[in-house]
Amino acid sequence: MPRILLTTRCRDSGLYDYLRENAPRNFRWRFGMPRTISFGLRFLRQNLPDLNILEYPTRAEFSAQLKRGWDAVGFSFYLEETNDILAMAAEARQAGIRELWAGNYGALTPSIQSHFDHVFTGYSEDALGQKLGTRVDEIQHPPLITRFRLPGGWSFPLGVLFSSRGCSFRCTFCQTTAFAPKPKEISLASLDRVLRFYVQHGIHFVLLLDENFGNLPSHAEAVIELLARHRVRWLVQSRVDLLLRNFNDWQRCGMEGALFGIESFHQDILKQMHKNERAEAAFELAERLNRAGLYAQGYYIIGLPPETPGSISEDLRTLASLKLDVTQITIVTPHPQTEMWQELDSGYGIFEKDWSKFDTKHLVWNHPHCAPGVLESLLEQGFHSCYGKDWLVRTSRKFLSTRRAQNDISSVLMGPVRSRWASSARLPYLPVQVPSGDQQVRRAVA
């Protein structure tokens, strides 16, 4: 069996914190969610136990690992991490590693693929299993626990769940159209197993991070029944139309909040993005979530070609009026192998060569109406508007009222203790399952 090491970027420049990146600079009273584990590498290691993974090491730790004589070293990364990964790959070459592999969304970039001997596209358990001479019969979901920090820093553990992976929608800005264009279910047996682990370790809140939960209706219904059986509360990422269609049923079954894409308040822009949703639907969803006291997190994009500084400022004021608990605002950023990359590159030109600037917080193409620096200033303006003077009181009151209504203050008090499972060193994998008789037959035939 070849000796394989899979790694992420090094952590020397600090861990990525999604909620820090989507708040005003130096804003203390915000939520936090530092990225300490790699969901993708955990899935690979759970399903292919002979792999070795290294999650967000220091550069010294990475260099020390290279001396252990690996047959191949693979890198899992996002587009904005490309510079760091290329430097790590160069070091691995110098250390005499025979094969370098690349995976995750960052590996979709054609211009950097020549730095690697093999590029994995999409979720790669099957492809990597073939490389190792084994077969993955059914994807097993690993325990994934993240440390969610409340305003002020109090820790609260969330169990992460993917009931499916991939997306069939064709939004022009999204790389999933190239990465995993067809959603695939994770089996109920696998989900039941990981939910049992969460509950046994005091994790009673789950974050469903499907691209669009509910897009596979019968499977989603079965997953919700499973969540209810384990008596966990859940937050869910989905489309606005799916959330509105299922709002009452999902709330009755334990939904505590939603994460959803708004993208734009203008129907013509949504149409250009192939978003195919009613612009006014986002207002309805935000109002229903707030009225019900449920967590509301929205995603918004600024800087499409027709937009001007004036129109963006007006839209950001509208965005603030939704009174969301968390607001992700991004500058429109073309990503390789998307329609938007082709449209912006051919129509206006992509001038930026520094991959670290492709983090959705910098302008990287020639905007027809916004000079360099303007969109970055508007981005900060938007965050200050969305996290205004009433934000902390409003959001804290919603959170505590929900916990009191659920008679569940103890989950908050025990949060820091239970959050210890979010440590990459502490979080285990589930035991390898012995294949059933028919699986053994199929494997023998294969």
Q: Your description of this structure?
A:
- The chain folds into two domains: 4-137, 3-Layer(aba) Sandwich (Rossmann fold); 145-410, TIM Barrel, CATH 3.20.20.
- 38% of the residues lie in helices and 15% in strands.
- Strand 3 (72-76), helix 4 and strand 4 form a beta-alpha-beta unit.
- The longest helix is centred in the C-terminal third of the chain and has 15 residues, at 391-405.
- With 446 residues, it is α/β, with parallel strands linked by helices.
- It has 18 helices and 14 strands.
- The strands form three sheets. A seven-stranded mixed beta sheet has the order 6-7-10-11-12-13-14. Strands 2-1-3-4-5 form a five-stranded parallel beta sheet, with helices on both faces. The protein has a two-stranded antiparallel ribbon with strand order 8-9.
- Helix 7 packs parallel to helix 8, helix 9 (240-252) runs parallel beside helix 11 and helix 12 (309-321) runs parallel beside helix 14 (374-386).
What is this structure, in a nutshell?
By secondary structure, the protein is α/β, with parallel strands linked by helices. It is 38% helix and 15% strand. It folds into 2 domains: 4-137, 3-Layer(aba) Sandwich (Rossmann fold); 145-410, Alpha-Beta Barrel (TIM Barrel).
What is the strand and helix layout of this fold?
Blueprint lengths: L3 E4 L10 H4 L17 H9 L4 E3 L4 H8 L5 E5 L5 H13 L4 E5 L14 E2 L5 H8 L12 E5 L5 E7 L2 E2 L10 H4 L4 E2 L2 H13 L4 E4 L8 H13 L3 E6 L1 H13 L2 E9 L3 H6 L8 H11 L3 E8 L6 H13 L4 E6 L7 H9 L26 H13 L4 H15 L3 H5 L1 H4 L18 H9 L1
Parallel strand pairs: 1-2, 1-3, 3-4, 4-5, 7-10, 10-11, 11-12, 12-13, 13-14
Antiparallel strand pairs: 6-7, 8-9
